[in-house]
């Protein structure tokens, strides 16, 4: 609702701020060797007004920018071209997903089909994206240390009191911890991940 009521300059400022938050989130994941490989729609504002990536269900551990995986997963409209080509993909796929998310602003560089030339795809990673002209007004250190004023901050200190959803009070459903028989594990040996 806030975004719809803003004028064009305010929308651009908000989009720049929230996109910068996503860039920092992806950068942190990549530094930990994690490919997010999911659409960047499952985001949440924290109580300070900063955007957080909240869905890691499709994330994959990789040790570096050159490591590849072949698993086909995610929402097709957000999947990088290399994910469909059976050549393997790496962290550059996350920058494609970011490009899809903000295509109107950064379309021509984050949506480069060749992963080797995509903005953010090399070892410099997020640093190349951070110096893009779109982010010229972002002070990355200030943002990283939460010293940049967000476009929106909750004014209700106890904002969770206004949230009343009985489903949230229900106990969490968890998969029972059972040992998987070795013959069943063997049937899935060719899959991407095998537990020790």
Secondary structure blueprint with pairings:
Layout: H1 8-31, E1 34-35, E2 43-45, E3 51-53, E4 60-61, H2 92-101, H3 103-110, H4 126-130, H5 140-144, H6 182-187
Helix pairs in contact: 2-3
Report on this model:
Residues 1-196 form the Protein kinase domain. One of its GO terms (molecular function) is protein serine/threonine kinase activity. This protein is mainly alpha-helical. The protein has one domain: Orthogonal Bundle (Transferase(Phosphotransferase), domain 1), CATH 1.10.510.10. It is 30% helix and 5% strand. It is built from six helices and four strands, in the order αββββααααα. It has a two-stranded antiparallel ribbon with strand order 1-4. A hairpin with a 5-residue loop joins strand 2 and strand 3. Helix 2 packs antiparallel against helix 3. The model has no long low-confidence stretch (mean pLDDT 78).
